[in-house]
Amino acid sequence: MGRVRTKTVKKSSRQVIEKYYSKMTLDFHTNKKILQEVAIIPSKRLRNKIAGFSTHLMKRIQKGAVRGISLKLQEEERERRMDFVPEESAIKIHEIKVDKETIDMLAALGMSDFPGIVEVEPQPMVPTQGFGRGGGARSATNTTNPLSLSTKLRLSTKFSPSPLLPPPLETTQTPEAETQEKTRKVDNEAPKTDFCQKGKIFIGNLPNWIKKNELSELFRQFGPIQNVILINGHNETERNAGFGFIIFDGTTAEKSAMKAEEFDGMEFHGRVLTVKLDDGRRLKAKAEERRNWVDGQDGVDYRSKWHEEREGSTKAFRKVLDTQPENWQAVVGAFERIKKPARRDFGLMVGYYARRGDMHRARQTFESMRARGIYPSSHVYTSLIHAYAVGRDMEEALSCVRKMKEEGVEMSLVTYSIVVGGFAKIGNAELGPYLRTLCRSHHLWKKPLARVEWILGGYAYRISQSCNMNRAEALVREMEEEGIDAPIDIYHTMMDGYTMIGNEEKCLIVFKRLKECGLAPSVISYGCLINMYTKTGKVSKALEVSKMMESAGIKHNLKTYSMLINGFLKLKDWTNAFTVFEDVIKDGLKPDAVLYNNIIKAYCGMGNMDCAINMVKEMQKERHRPTSRTFMPIIHGFARAGEVRRALEIFDMMRRSGCIPTVHTFNALVLGLVEKRQMEKAVEILDEMALAGVSPDEHTYTTIMHGYAALGDTGKAFEYFTKFRNEGLELDVFTYEALLKACCKSGRMQSALAVTREMSAQNIPRNTFVYNILIDGWARRGDVWEAADLMQQMKQEGVQRDIHTYTSFINACCKAGDMPRATKTIQEMEALGVKPNVKTYTTLIHGWACASLPEKALRCFEEMKLAGLKPDKAVYHCLMTSLLSRATVAEAYICSGILSICREMIESEFTVDMGTAVYWSKCLRKIEGTGGELTEALQKTFPPDWNAHYSPEANYESDIDDEPSNGGDNNMFLAGLHPHDEPSNQVEISSSSSSHRSCMSMDINSIGRTEVAFIGFDGAVHIASSH
Known about the structure:
This is RRM domain-containing protein. Residues 158-187 are annotated as: Disordered. The chain has 1027 residues and is mainly alpha-helical. It is built from 49 helices and 10 strands. It has a 4-stranded antiparallel β-sheet with strand order 4-5-3-8. A two-stranded parallel ribbon has the order 1-2. The protein has a two-stranded antiparallel ribbon with strand order 6-7. Helix 20 (449-465) runs antiparallel to helix 21 (469-481). The chain starts with 6 loop residues before the first helix and ends in a 24-residue tail after the last strand.
């Protein structure tokens, strides 16, 4: 097919010629560059069509009239084309000079009486040098007589044939003639362009503070001024750079400039001014740039202003992309400021959205590039596939792969790796072999083996991160069958996967296999073992691995040191954590942000908040930017200590450091206030979050619900549960645990059962913590049958029963007085491999004490010591109170037991509080009256100020009335605790990985001043309680 020119092409070409005729040439490529500068054309194809047709019209204008182009423009072109314009017309009406030959011709025609004809003598013609286009050639060949009528009449050749011209002579130029011709050409060249701007002068050595009006007043004496130009300074834009220009106005502008130049060297504000005429440097540079751009030179790319602006916008976009990737608004704004993005710019933007996981915007940018006529490359396709892989939409990723094949775009190694990794991330093990077969069937499998190992290693890493270790093991076996030796990185990946699932045995097997294959363990290999042991709480074994690594000549790095510090932090061993940190400094390693955060957490754990703040300042000095994770333990520490004002000061410090408070930061503050039972201030934090534009999450509401549950305020707990559900947050088992805790704390077991039915309706399974809360609730009421039913349900549903479950059930048995069942439960625990702890024995001792069997309590106490458990203060209080209550029977073993327990308490340096001392002294008064061996031994455990606050001569007639009942609920003194004591029993509130909940320990007994709880809602032991 021939070329098809649309109406748009023709109309555009004519408009370009009309407006820019002086710039247009007969060269297609030059016209194409001109179009790029003066017009905005959507595509290169349309631009080339317009440039081609414009060149065609320019050539036609040279030959003759062209339709659609203004006649004035064409007439001007023909006048420029003419070689010579005569001063008078070639045909005169009054007189016509002709030669004799012409008169004879007219006479033969009968026109001899033609008026105005004058005969003249012919003159010899001398060839003249022409000017312009071909003028000289025509003048040299035109040797006819100008007086002949044949030169003036177009039809004269029909009446008289033109004379034959002699053949042209071959001319040979001599060197002298060539030199003369070159000289003549140089003389005929156009004069050089004067770039100097008339009426413009340069002024130098100006004061930096001078203003335009002052300079204008000085030079106004030489003539009217059109404009004053002062060049601003580079650093201070308010001051000038010390020079400028003045442009005079009017017809006398040139004379005014020359007159002003005469005052060169004049003094102005203490400065000697430099005044010169404009040398045309600026206009000459522009003309030179324009000529270079039009003509072009090899190796030099002369860009137009539009191209320079576009290149500047592109560089700014890439700089923002490198320096501020987290500020997506700045990145998008920089990309939108590029007037015409190239393929590379689109590719960078698609890759940016891919890293953010925003596959929809990545696709939108990709389609925008296609709409502009830019064909995507392999890099752009790979970035789009990466976006879908991050977004876990592998169906669309495969459609992009098919599109690449259809368009003939070659898939790279990175493309295959991203696709394989995407399938591994979603746990799709069935498509893994298909993709490896795809690799094997293409050229990629023929590449170096290390690259194939890299792809399969990435696949193994994705599988291990998804905890699908069976599939990872199968992949390693398949690699061995294919003849590919697994590199050490895959072994590290396998060890990391087993660490994540907590399989210590398999991790050690992989480490042993690594050494059997002849691979030398590296710091990463030992780091995997250290990480496994620290995560499982076996820090001693982690230290053994550390010594093994050092004996092998491998030094620690920051990551291995961080793992050890994390292990000690989990054990709350602050001293050893600081010791490891000192080793980091001794090894000459500079701590990173992660290590600083761990040390700040250690300081906060030991309560040294000032050192934690100093460590933040030290971190900033080392040019490490603190994050919200840095300030969270400090805020939580101050809130837990009740110093809300200082916690808010840390909030302000965090904002000044450039950290934006997140919901996790506010959660740390709420958690600390809840632990101190300051619920009103904790609720006020919700208002602070609303002002900061931060919405509470699941953990925020759950923490507040746990706080009200610890207070037994069921109404408030249900109120925030309603808010939780109305805001559309996801309900989980931890939320219902808070409600169950509130119900059981207040004794509303029917409401607790309703909550469990709601959990079943929401398909939320009951775990061990939920059953522990319910069993503890029934234990508070002494309903051993309901507690036994829950134990049976746990067995049927396969829910594991832990030490807290058995301790709660033993508490229920003791409350009901069913001690044989409690003893049988102890035996069942030991048969299942669950060893009783101190709180379990404390509960059992309290049960025997309530049953008025102190000898059984003493036997249980001896069993506890034989099991290697160290008695705590609560055990001694409970046992001593039981023995004193039965000492009046005068059994010998009771007195010996009291003396033995007194000696142990004195050796352990246990001192009771004043209330316990008062009660024990009343019991001793009944036993020994005025005093004796028991009184003397027991008083050594009393407070030092016992004699100052208590008078022995006091009246004890009301002792019997004040003695608490062993079987009652108000067994505070039975446990040996005073209402002002704060027991150390903890309630563990576990964390949800989905909502980033942190684990918190909550003291549930510091609020109820009339009760002592040794079994918390999650299984902590309670001795006695009052409702």
